Amino acid sequence: MVLDFSSMEGKWQKAWYDARINESEPAPGTKKFFMIFAYPGVTGYLHVGHMRGYTVSDAIVRHKMMTGHRVLFPVGTHATGNGAISFARKVERGDPATMDILRSNGCPDETLDRLTDPVEVVRFFNEVYVNDYWKRFGFMSDWRRFTSTIYPDYTKFIEWQMLKLQAEGLLTQKPYYAPACVEHGPVAIDASETDISRGGDAEMLEYTILKFDFEDGRKLVAATLRPETVFGLTNFWVNPEVEYVDARVGDETWVVSRPAAEKLSLQMDSVEIVGSADGASFMGKRCTAPLTGRAIPIFPSLLCDPDIGTGLVMSVPSDAPVDWIGLVELRRDVEERKKYGITEAMIAEASPIAIIDTPGYGPLPAVEVTERIGIDSLDDERLDEATKEVYKTGFHKGVMNSSCGEFAGWQVEQAKDAVRGQMLDRGHASMFYDLSEVVLCRCGNRVLVKKIPDQWFIDYSNPALKKRSKEHALTMRIFPKEYYDNIQNVLEWYRERACVRLGNWLGTRFPIDRRWIVEAIADSTLYPIHYVTSRFVNEGKVAAENMTEEFFDYVLLGRGTPADVERATGVGQSVLDAIRSEFDYWYPLDVNLGGKEHMTVHFPVFLMNHVAILRPQHWPRGIIVNWYITSTGGKISKSKGGAQPIPDAAERFGVDAMRLFYAHIASLYVDVAWEDGKVESYSDRLERIWSFIGDLVSAEDSGPTDMDAWLAARMQSRLADLEGYMEAYDLRSYANDVFFEMAQDFKWYLKRGGGSAEAILGALRLWIPLMAPVTPHMAEELWERIGMNPFVSTVLLPKAELSEAATVEEKGERLVAALMEDISEILKVTSIRPSKIVLMVAPRWKHDMVGSAVASTDKNIDIGQLIKETMKSAPQEARREIPAFAKEIAMEVSRTPVDERRKAYVAVDELEALGRAKRFFSDQFGCEVHVFSADDPARVDPKGRARHARPGRPAVYVE
RNA sequence: GCGAGGGUAGCCAAGCUCGGUCAAAGGCGACAGACUCAAGAUCUGUUCUCGUAGGGGUUCCCCGGUUCAAAUCCGGGCCCUCGCACCA
Fold it and tell me: Which terminus has fewer CB within 10 Å in chain A: N or C?
């Protein structure tokens, strides 16, 4: 590394923050731009992947700063939930992995002791995020506005938000089933296992439990995922080796497994175990199926697991391979049958009943599939796969047949809900929720599904809210385009969402019932607003306790009079009005950027809460979704690279190189694998640019040339392209032009003999500022080096000026460059070492013909007309060529859209342009070069190449 | 299952919205040359294939279609990734 990136970074960051160019002050009358990225949850150290979205945000914000906007780009942290709590617990018990991470990130021992307190954990990581990540990357954030979701003022803001939702009639209450630890209350089940120690992949299953009347009045209770198959019931399975219990539920007695009784007791009002029931005692007896009223035999099955469902199973051999094979085995196993007194006749009675017409199958899919695969034992591992196959096709494509009473002819998918609904209505069934696998809380206790009878929800299904939100989303600038389209569907499908939770969590007490804590998604929907108020709190102008409902109503909704509000809140009118006018200045939010995980969670509720609570002029204007930096083959991890602490990576690669990596490596809308080598190549690229610019400024001034105008023109057309890219937040194209293409422009300028110090400096005064959004530190350093005053970060980029003359300049150079390639190609193919190159530009009449073709405003050029017109003016000897050439030209021009033709075919004096480039060609190919017009009698053209000359493509003769 | 996105030359990755200007940007890697005592770095050129004239042939997952023309539009198939709710 020839450049000391690290000290450059420190130098400029200090300078920026000392000069406070990052601080956001409203300036009424000027353009403003307000952007945030979704704040990180405080759960530990972040990794280099997280910096992608943050860096892109900063680059966008910096570009806005340089295009005449006041910007507000605040940061904060999300500490709600139990992330910090579980982190503190891990520190407390000295969890080796956690301690290792802390130490390898350089956390001093004396700090470790502090981190057993969740609030200290939040405080600690707030510092880490701000200092080691965001400031370290040179962000233009207004640090005075930092806030965190557990700060008292934030809490007051959330209370207000919940009160507003209630006032809008958007809070509802109803029963809810949620996974919960017996000891610690509700927990989240997710793959990262933040709350739990086992079972992150578990899913919540929705069972229907069906009650079968037994002869003594008890009910045998089976759980099923396919209630519509009751019509195909032939028998009932009970495990003869299990001790079941009698459970008193309401005024009924249910027979279920002991674990099932315990689970049910969490979900039903009164469940009391009153006795036990020996599984074997039911063998060979009968019970009565719900809905059909059929009396079916009870058979033994060791597959009935007391931990799954209720431990009792209903048997549908027509569509469940396991049930069918169970019967097959039982028929075969004379011993077992004898033991429980089950006769062949009873088994025959339990023959499968066809109930579903499944496309591609006969009437009994389970029998068919097991026979086809050759399964005849319950031990066969392929049973699972057979079950999946039958279940999938039957459920999604099947139709209930005539055995299904009133449901005959129904799609199975629809029949499921209808059949269940009927049985629920008649008291034959209940709902029961269970997890698909064993889940253990961090404390070691089982996590089970628990009924919360009075759960609060935010009602996102509210039709008016949904409609307004969808309409507003159509007016927003949402990237990528695919999400702009899809958010309509997301909003459409949104239902009510639980918004508060019980238990020991960090967060805001629910103002309507303080037993609850506002849930982590619900408290981060409207929060961009709070960056306006947080500043006043952090500066001591308002205290959290004064931030009452009246306070927020006044500053955010414009309700009440200053005098009344001052009286009610104790906040002075001048402060109230300062906050209110800042809010009016900065709001609405222009862009909210967040990772793709937010697409179905945060962004929809962010949008809907704004729409629900704020006035329309304050609804958000834009969303950008970013994809992830991953590691090769998965998440960032220690073994695969990219897991080094962010400050270490910054030190190793340089912040600007990392920023360029994030900006340029790929579109923001694809996942990218982190590779150290790639980041290093961006470091190299920056060093090359650095030394290249060094060479440019230290080179001797060789005075003005024709190329100076070209360089200036080129800069303007680059500038115009770049403006377009940033309009769509396309940072990748922007970086590609600035850091790769523009360097090529300078090289071409030099190659073509340019060398004016003034022209170069003029171009650098544009190029270097254009780098600043992406690589601000190096840009500042370069800026200083070419003798400009700091800061390049606050330079106002000019608007691109595109003139006709500039277009001609560029076209002329394109002609030269294209000709270079053509000549090289010819030399390569023919292996000629040239002693002479003759260039012949197309004759006048060909240019004229192109000119009149381009002048036509018709989409399709009239060839006849073109020929006639050209015949009039073209020289006699050209006549024979005219028709064929006219056809070519007409077809070619027709392909170019009418409004682009003028620019694409702008007329260039080729003879003059090549005349100027003669020296250049001669130097490049090391031989003499002659330029003629193709109809110049003096031309040297023994092979008759001249007739190939076309406008934009001169003929070439080499010898 | 529901919903979304994707499969482009050795690798990564643009292009696909608005079909032609696409053998397809850019980067990396590889090869050759320059510089150098040498290595590295840097610079220049080449990098599907054939070709003694700027051209031809075959390509953008597979099959089929629309069109004068398809990487781009339409239909079908195969494969991959992601989100799915109290998890930020």
Answer: C
Whether A895 sits with its Cβ under 7 A from any strand B atom: the answer reads yes
Nucleotide nearest to A40 (CA to C1'): B88
pLDDT, tens digit (0-9, with 9 covering 90-100), for A428-461: 999 898 888 788 887 778 888 888 888 999 999 9
pLDDT digits (tens, 9 = 90+) for A145-178: 999 999 999 999 999 999 999 999 999 998 888 8
What is the predicted ipTM? 0.92
Nearest nucleotide (C1') to the CA of residue A950?
Answer: B54
A154 lies in the same domain as A76? yes
Q: For A690-710, what is each residue's pLDDT tens digit?
A: 999 999 998 889 999 999 999
Strand A252-256 vs strand A219-224: parallel, antiparallel, or unpaired?
Answer: parallel
**Rounded Cα–Cα distance for residues A113 and A912 (Å):** 79
* Residue A673: nearest nucleotide (C-alpha to C1'): B12
For residue range A791-827, what is the model confidence (pLDDT) as tens digits?
Answer: 999 999 999 998 888 888 888 998 998 898 889 888 8
Residue A638 pLDDT class (50, 70, 90 cuts): very low
Same domain assignment for residues A283 and A223: yes
Torsion-angle region of A700 (φ positive above 0: left; ψ -120 to 50: alpha; else: beta):
beta
CATH number at residue A670: 1.10.730.10
Exposed (0-12), middle (13-18) or buried (19+): which is A803, by Cβ within 10 Å? exposed
Of A708, A901, A907, residue with least CA distance to A804: A907
Tell me the residue ranges of DSSP E strands in A146-203.
147-148, 171-181, 185-186, 196-198
Residues 440-459 of A with CB under 7 A from strand B: 455
Residues A683 and A744 reside in one and the same domain:
yes
| Cβ contact A272 with chain B strand, < 7 A | no
Question: Is the Cβ atom of A947 within 7 Å of strand B at any atom?
Answer: no
Q: Mean pLDDT across the stretch A86-104?
A: 86
Is A453 within a domain? no
Q: Domain check: are A618 and A642 in the same one?
A: no
Tell whether A622 and A643 lie within a shared domain: no
> Has residue A642 got a pLDDT over 60?
no
Domain shared by A15 and A99, yes or no: yes
Residue A392 Cβ < 7 Å to strand B? yes
A521 contact to strand B (CB, 7 A limit): yes
A760 in the same domain as A643 = yes
Last residue of some domain: A752, A769, A802?
A802
Provide mean pLDDT across the span A62-84: 94
**Domain, as residue range, for A710:** 638-802
Question: Is the model's pLDDT at A861 over the cut of 90?
Answer: no
Using the CB atoms, write b or e for A587-617: b if 16+ within 10 Å.
bbbbbbbbbeebbeebbbbbbbbbbbbbeee
In the complex, which nucleotide's C1' lies nearest to the CA atom of residue A692? B42
How many independent structural domains does chain A possess? 4
Residue nearest to nucleotide B4 (CA to C1'): A486
The Cβ of residue A107 has, within 10 Å, a number of other Cβ atoms equal to: 18
Residues A227 and A339 in one domain: yes
